Amino acid sequence: MPCRCGSIKPSGKGDDLGFAILKGFHMSCASLSLGLFVWRGMRVLHHRPIASMLWARIVPDTVDALLLGSGVALAWWLHQIPFESPWLTAKLAAVVLYIGLGFVVMRFGRSDGVRRMAWVAALVVFAYIVSVAVSRSPLPYLG
Ligand code: HEM
Questions:
Q1: What are the tens digits of pLDDT across the range 50-85?
Q2: Pocket of ligand 1, candidates 63, 74, 77, 137: which has the most ligand atoms within 8 Å of its Cβ, to mutate?
Q3: How high is the pLDDT of residue 83?
Q4: Does any domain span residue 22?
Q5: For residue 43, is it within any domain?
Q6: Mean pLDDT of the region 40-58
Q7: Number of domains present in the structure of the chain
Q8: Domain limits at 80?
């Protein structure tokens, strides 16, 4: 029966390399996702739409899907379950918020001010997600 405590690591029975590769992939997707989000947000805020650039619509969605998919795979690997692991619950809630803010920036924001605020808020939420992931705590700097 696998332990579901907050500090499990892969067993060490030959699967550590696989875990490290998956985590490296997940972190690469996170960096790419951030870079694309910053770039797309800056274009939208400067009224330079990306709708005409097919790759700029497909690549970010693909990267985000890979980011979420690899995150789920990591959680499965570590036997971490949302609502049992507070850090994962907090991270998932923040991911949902990040996605929602992304929609406000890219589609639903009615004014430049709203879009700009949503963009900044999304970057703050992204920083929180990374802090939660690194610290494995829902309150990263508070213990
Ligand atoms: C915007 C979305 C996400 C970002 C920016 C992100 C970022 C990261 C980062 C930077 C790490 C490496 C932390 C370290 O140094 O150990 C990580 C690990 C991890 N992430 Fe994500 N992640 C995201 C989404 C998800 C999702 C949706 C899940 C699960 C459903 C998830 C589950 C995990 C797990 C289980 C780990 C391994 C933690 C460990 O080794 O202790 N992530 N994530």
A1: 877 888 889 999 999 999 999 999 999 999 888 899
A2: 74
A3: 87
A4: yes
A5: yes
A6: 88
A7: 1
A8: 16-135
